[in-house]
Design goal:
By secondary structure, this protein is of the alpha+beta class. The protein has five helices and nine strands; from the N terminus they run αβββαβαβαβββαβ. A hairpin with a 4-residue loop joins strand 1 and strand 2.
Amino acid sequence: MKKIILLLVLAFSAFLQAQTGTTLKAGDAAPDFKLKNVDGKEVSFASYPKAKGFIVVFTCNTCPYAVAYEQRIIDLDNKFRSQGYPVIAINPNDPEASTADTFDKMQELAKGKKYPFAYLFDAGQKVTDQYGAKRTPHVFIISKSTKGNVVEYVGAIDNDPEGTKTEKIKYAEDVIASLKNNQKPTITQTKEIGCTVKRKAKA
């Protein structure tokens, strides 16, 4: 009974986040989704039955920061997918507001860069709003638990958006390391750095 009540509380929390437009934070339920991947197939958390968690990255084709982080996102997936934490990339930009972020352009980029991870199209920006993603890239690290999918960390991949620091603080990697050791991350939120999510102008 307690487990059912807890699940209902988490689900209601996710609903409120979607309604208010605020960004999810550590401890919140991570809403599931079913979005079209660049290969034409729909992807959700259930597509990864053996995953221990997920590195959900809201990113795009066009933002200079997103471009600067492309290889680092690929590296995250290459390093942690086999350890149970795959990357799931979601493009939050409306293609009418950012014409280089159409589904066709996403397919071209994913093929050209040989993305090893899913790159999903968020038609209508529903999932973007549920998570409260504000910029590209914006990272949400999620763990599976008896309570469902839970947000563990929100923010930046590291503290080096320009890619020039010799000593980086690798937030995302540090969070995954803690989760693998069954520990809560010491840092659960950092300031996301990147371009704002592109939306259609309101009529």
